[in-house]
Structures are given as C-alpha cells and as structure tokens.
C-alpha cells in the first residue's frame, strides 16, 4: 500500500510455458510485497479459477494455478483448487498441480446454509460448499472476459462459480449485478491473481473468441483488480453496475486514481477489447422488439441474443414479437411471442417466457423454440411455455452445468 492507495501489480508474460507463467506469478506477487504471508501451516487454502468449460482457451491457465498452488503448499497449507463443475477435473487430470493441491468440484462438497451479510439481492439463506466459508485463505484466479449482459467479467464475477451446479440460476433470478456483490461480501478474496494472458472477447458467453494479451495481474482487493483490468481493456468502471455497487458498499476503490499500479503502466499495456453487440435493432421487418422499459442488462442480453440468432431470425418465415421490461399492458403481439426478464412474470402466459434479470445464454433456446426450431430436452428446461401449450409429462433432463452461463 502507498498511503491510502490500493495496490495492483501488472506483469507482462512472453509465453505461457510453465516456467514463464511461474516467473510472471512470482514477479506479480513480489510487487505486492508478500501477499501469502498470512498463510500458516495446516491452513486450508482455496484457489477458485474460472474453469467450467471444455473449449480450449476458455479457462484460467493451468500453469497459473500450478504456480499459486506450489507457493501456498510451500507454506504448509492444505490447498484446494475448486470450481463448480467436474470439468476442471478433466482439464487437470494429469497435470502436475496434483503434487501441490487437491482438485475438487464444489458440486461434490457438503453444503452449508448461510445468510449473506448485508445482501441486497441474495437476501434469503443459500447453500454453499463447506470450504467456501470455512477455508482460512481464499485466492481468486479469474480469466479476463467480456460479457454480453454485464459487459465485463473478472475477479468479482468469478465468485458466481461458488454456487454448485444448477444453483447459479438463483443469481439470475435474484438479479445478477447485486448478487455478484453479495457473493463477494459472503466470501472476500484475500488475493486475486488474474489470468489476462489469453482473454475472451466478443459476444461471450453466447459465442466469444480468444485473444492473446500476455498479462498477469495481482491484488489483495477484487474491486481494485477489476477497475484496473477494465481500464487495461478499454472499459470504464462507470459502465459496470456491480463495481459501482461494490464501491458504495465499501468493498474497494472505484477510481483508478485511488489505485497504485505497480510493474508496467496501464497505458503501456492497454488494448481495446472486442465487446458484445449492444445495438437492439431487429434484423428484418416482421421481427418486433419492445424493450424501451427494460433494464440495461436485459437490453444487452437481448441485443446479444439477436446477434447470435441473426441467421435463424432472417430465415424464420413468420412474425415474431419480443417484449422486455415492466409494462402494465403488453403491446400488440404479432406472430410468435417471447417475453424476456423477471419484470414480465405477470404476463408469462402470453408467450414463451424467459425468466431472469438477465436470462442466461442457454435461454436463447426459448427464442428458437418460439420460431418452431427443435431444442433439446435439456434446453427445454430453460424456458416456460404457456400452460395451454405445455407438456409436463416429460421427465426433466438437466443440461450440463458448463452450459449454464
């Protein structure tokens, strides 16, 4: 720390070999002093990566996890690398990280019912894996990404993955922005080490692509980390509602002037990340969109969904009406009808209903269903059709948790 400034370190990494990443992590931690000094012999240390997707590149670097686990283990700690699905076990199956840490899925752990202190959205008790609240030292290891609904995801949003399996749906039902902050109040991060060596940009999580950037960042404060990395990626902190909320709750600084960036300067490594589309323009006549009263998250989700489904929307021979946002009376409904977001719950019988604020990427299946396309049994669990059209006789078939983003 320098005065009242919160420290964030930035280190460039030339390649992603184990040796280069290890050196980069060492340098990033050294710039913070000794952020692992509070780890004692026998302590439980949890490292939480972003590692629930099989797609190459769409995950925290295993070499970064190895570097962190090795250093925590050297202090005599019992180290866990934990994520919400079984996918990380597949990715790390034969990786040398097992020499230093246990690789576990939150889905396999005993659950504890907890009340989130000072929660704004997750105000009812929720079930979290035991090691989330009972560990002695918690390290976040996110991968820098864009996001079609909340613009940008890194240290703070990585904690949505604390919830096991399908329960991440709770976050979208309660409201994503404030829920992100609630989860950070529940489980403060003692240290965050960000993987910005390969970042994900574009229309993620509906699509997205990888980009090589070559950075590792570290901080003792998740908010400061996200403010700094947003600036690196050309995103203003004022654009991120959850960062604004976190700053109001006193979780960290929102102004880059209150952050001491150590190592390379932000301007020297800055780039402009390719964001998800935000233009809410129907691709053709006959696609009617009514979303003037929708919240920003739902509007962004809808813009991303139309971009993702553009070809199918153009090929659809009929009319389609999509409505989002609170309204006492629905507009004229022409053709197939899709209702987007929690605010339209009272009108849910008027068409295919996608709950959430915002919905999740997998729920674009509801729009495809409304156009008459086949969807899988798993996708069919992610939207509601009017009672008169529903078939509740089929057994539920849940999608793979990695799809629930």
Describe this structure in words.
The strands form three sheets. Strands 1, 2, 3, 4, 7, 8, 9, 10, 11 and 12 form a ten-stranded mixed sheet that branches. The protein has helices at 18-30, 62-74, 87-91, 130-134, 169-174, 176-186, 222-232, 241-248, 266-269, 296-308, 310-315, 364-370, 377-380; strands spanning 6-12, 44-49, 78-83, 102-105, 111-114, 126-129, 137-141, 143-147, 151-153, 191-201, 209-219, 259-263, 287-290, 320-324, 336-340, 352-354. The two termini are 36 Å apart. The model has no long low-confidence stretch (mean pLDDT 94). β3, α3 (87-91) and β4 (102-105) form a beta-alpha-beta unit. It has 405 residues and is of the alpha/beta class.
SSE layout:
Blueprint: E1 6-12, H1 18-30, E2 44-49, H2 62-74, E3 78-83, H3 87-91, E4 102-105, E5 111-114, E6 126-129, H4 130-134, E7 137-141, E8 143-147, E9 151-153, H5 169-174, H6 176-186, E10 191-201, E11 209-219, H7 222-232, H8 241-248, E12 259-263, H9 266-269, E13 287-290, H10 296-308, H11 310-315, E14 320-324, E15 336-340, E16 352-354, H12 364-370, H13 377-380
Parallel strand pairs: 1-12, 2-3, 2-7, 3-4, 7-10, 8-10, 13-14, 14-15, 15-16
Antiparallel strand pairs: 1-11, 5-6, 8-9, 10-11
Helix pairs in contact: 1-2, 6-8
